[in-house]
User: Fold this.
Amino acid sequence: MTAGGSGVGTSNSRDEAKEPAVPSERIAAGAHFPSAAGIGSPRVKAYVAIWQGFIGSLMIFVGSIGAGWIANGSPMIRHPLVIALRTEGWGVTTSTILLTAGAMLLVRSWLRLGQRLKDWGPGSVRSVVVAVAAWAAPMMFAVPIYSRDVYAYTGQGRLVLEGQNPYTAGISSLSNWFALGADPAWAEAKTPYGPYFLWLARWVVGITNAQPDFSVLLFRVLAAGGVLLCVIYVPKLAELHGINPGRALWIAVANPLFLISFIASAHNDALLVGLAVAGMYFAATGRHITGLLLVTASIGIKPITVLLLPFIGLMWAGPAANWTRKFLFWGATAAISFGVLAVSGIPYNLGFGWAWAILDPTPGYTAFSPSGFLSQQVDVIANLLGLPGGTVASGLRTLLKWTGMALVVVLMFRGDYSRLVRRAALAFAAVVMLAPIIQPWYILWFIPLLAVTGIRDDWQIKCLYVAVTFFVAFGAQDQLSVLSFVELNVKASSLSYVVAVGFAIYLMVLDVHTRRLLIRSTPGELLRRLEQRLRRSE
Assistant:
């Protein structure tokens, strides 16, 4: 099933419960999946959800003008309409509602798209691609939302352009750095990004002369390139594993957290993910060097994808490799990848500065990470017992972090060769989910690899629904840009919280369509099933 007879990607679709196992050859040939309804065109029905999502994305675009992050040096802040939306109570309130409601409408549209394409027959990939394009288009021109990291990218590009090293100097060393729009909390921080992204940042700043709005647009174009790589290679990698390509693309790329984080926020993680997915596809189809170089390029964007190298090495070693051969290919994989990165650090004297991001991670924790949440509870309990709660909690976070790394080692040494991509996805997930700090877009690092190897239509997909909805709702209220002097009847973050929670309750309880995704059977359906069983027993 793979080039060179390597056998990677031959796992069947048992990972997608309630779907028949379909050979990848049949998927590639456009084989039809059985239709439960038997009537109607899923593609026609899909456009209803696509249009609804487009409206949601337009609402996000309009709302971002009054509640998104605008750089101090942007000429936009002097436009009369922008001034009204950002300084008048009605403008901030309207923008907050539009931004939050638009994001939640996009969540509903994504869920409904999956329901309307539930049979995932021919044309489903095309429908999902159309949805991705339609939903991303308005965000390409929105004011940055959910994060202002993109402004830090401009600052780091300026550092390289001016001959400074972003691995040793923060953007606060730049003249007039505050006008760039970056978060002051990171003004003196060293960059956690790889040399290739710093090259790209320098290129962007060289073209735009660090003008913040044009810089954001170019960084979005780069992020869109990463999204495009996912659109191309997620279906291919899914077919390789006998997983429906349309469903995998819907899970991985069409989900609103992916589009908001990678298009509206313009995170460079889009390139990281796109290059990683492409690299895993080439490696799994026997083109190991190409795959290795693509994953190395991903590391050059952000070093976290170094976790994929051991699994690339195992693919290269082959299914019949003994332990000596595996260790030799692990060594060759590391030597080639790190050798390329070493040479890549020569321009602009960047060296191996990116390695600090792995060896010296950001301190602290986020309360919504499993590690952070558990440590908070342990802190309280330990204090009640007269123990040093802070020390115990810190120890727990450290233990969980190293447990994640231990799981990577276990997955390197144990498991079927045919499930190497799945093992890589689980290793990635273990490190992210057990780390003390999780940003909303971090889960997008491993979701595509899980999607292409199978996310079952049971608790697995429900967990994804919950995670995506939570992070979309959380980001809307957590990352609002509201001037301190604006007088509001209700705090903007509180208003966003109410709108998001209200919409989430609507999706789970009131919406007759989406509530079935979490609650499979309504009370009426349960009664009908009970009556049927009673009749059969008579």
About this structure: The longest helix spans residues 212-240. The two ends are 51 Å apart (CA to CA). Residues 1-6, 10-40 have pLDDT under 50 and may be disordered. The CA atoms of residues 54 and 134 lie 6 Å apart.
